[in-house]
Structure formats: C-alpha cells, structure tokens
Amino acid sequence: xxxxxxxxxxxxxxxxxxxxxxxxxxxxxxxxxxxxxxxxxxxxxxxxxxxxxxxxxxxxxxxxxxxxxxxxxxxxxxxxxxxxxxxxxxxxxxxxxxxxxxxxxxxxxxxxxxxxxxxxxxxxxxxxxxxxxxxxxxxxxxxxxxxxxxxxxxxxxxxxxxxxxxxxxxxxxxxxxxxxxxxxxxxxxxxxxxxxxxxxxxxxxxxxxxxxxxxxxxxxxxxxxxxxxxxxxxxxxxxxxxxxxxxxxxxxxxxxxxxxxxxxxxxxxxxxxxxxxxxxxxxxxxxxxxxxxxxxxxxxxxxxxxxxxxxxxxxxxxxxxxxx
Length: 324
Known about the structure:
50% strand; mainly beta
C-alpha cells in the first residue's frame, strides 16, 4: 500500500489569527464540491477552533475562544489556491450583532455558510459577499442553544438544548425566520453530541452523552422538516464502550464513530440496531485519542490527538492489520 501522505507535503500558515493549521484533502460531499475537516486545539494555536470547512474555493476557520478563554466572533478564510498569511481574510460577526460569538458548528450549502452559536443563534454568511452586509441571522426559539448541525438540500438540522434538556430543530433554507423553525423535545436522559446526515439525506444520526458524560448511544430519525419520524436508538454501552466520541462520519454503507480513547466503532447502515463492531486501537497508543475522522473511496482517515498522528484504515478490512 502507498499514499501521498508525506511530511514534506504538509504546509501551514502562521499569523495572529491562524497558527499551524494544515489543509486537508478529504471526502467531497454532494452539496457542491464541499470538503470538510474538524480542527481542534493544535499545540500553539492562539484561537481554539471548533471546525474547518471548505466550499472548494476557500477554507473557512470557525473559532470559539482564544487561549485565554475570551469569546471570539471572527471567521477567517484563506483561498485553497493561495494558502498564505497574506491571503487571510476576516469577518467579525459581532459587527452585525454582539451576540454572534462562540461558534459551535458550521455547515455549507451553496452559496452560504451556516453557523450555530453558543449564544443561541443561527447565522447565515454569504461566501460571495464576505462582509457584514452578507450576514443574516435568527435567534433559535425558546432560548435553545444549538451546538451541532448538518444540512440537506432543503433543510438545516440542529441539535441543541435548554439547560441540557435536548431538542432537535429543522430550519428551511428558503425560510430563515424563527416562526418557521420546527423543533421536537428529545428528552433529558443525557446530552446530544454529534449529528450527521447520511449520503442519501434519508436519516439524521446523532450521538447521546449519558449523565456520567460518556457517549452511550446513537439515534437516527427520518431527515424531514416536520421531524415526525420514529426515533431508532442503538445502545453502544452494550458492546462495552466507555469513552466519548469526537468524530462521526457516514459512508455509503457504514457509520464510523471515533472514540476519545482507544476505540473506533463501525455500524452497518442497513442493519442499524444490530451491527455495531468494535475496533481496539490501543496497540498504536495507550492513549489513542481520536480528534477527527473523514474518508475517501479507499481509506478512513483518523487524526490522533497526542502526537498528532494521521492513521489510515481501509474500508474493506475493519481491523488493525491494514492501518497505516
């Protein structure tokens, strides 16, 4: 097996705003030619970044706080074809409204970025008019705080909470007003963590965090604006998983969850409630901490925190035998 993942082909830019964040060549989604990767806490960064996403022309960085814990409202972008400090552009959302700080998650649907904030807002940013005049926003109903989202061709799906009572929201892309936001109560047995649509945009999947702050399950629901589908729950504690999950990706056939320490889980989409497989990665590190996971047609890419290693796992062989 061979890949082009070589150290001399990794580059980074360094400035007051962006410090040592590398570009990624990862899976393209159906919504435009979108590539996306998550970036968290690289040693030496001045901002804590929640996520990195690309529209194919620019790479966008969503900061949360700076290293002192101060809320950040500025989005940065850098051209894909000119990855340099001189090319960095910034947009301060607080110029539009001082409440638009601490971005939790970001998604893309041509030609807009959509951001949920810890302050309870959904923000839409034009990638064509990357200025304050290209920003619109809506406050989520009932003071719900959104912290993860994914976007279909017509609908923005958001998971959030009110004092850790969990909600799922659906917002029509064509009607970004509060009165048109649908939402349902999910319960208070834990907290929802990650959410992701499958490639057919048929189901929305989200992970659950139980009251001891360990992810213990995965739920899916039909991805409709009405949110009237039956919720199917997969109890992952039944296979002995005692870690949180930092990453959730969905391929054509499988769902992959990257655990905080030592494990990856694979679930067959067509046998959702009975097919969870556990892969122990502790042979690579006693503290194998998955930070981010993505894929292409051949490999699952997993970025490991603590040493910042990038591991490749083949789709066809869910075992440690063929990990690079």
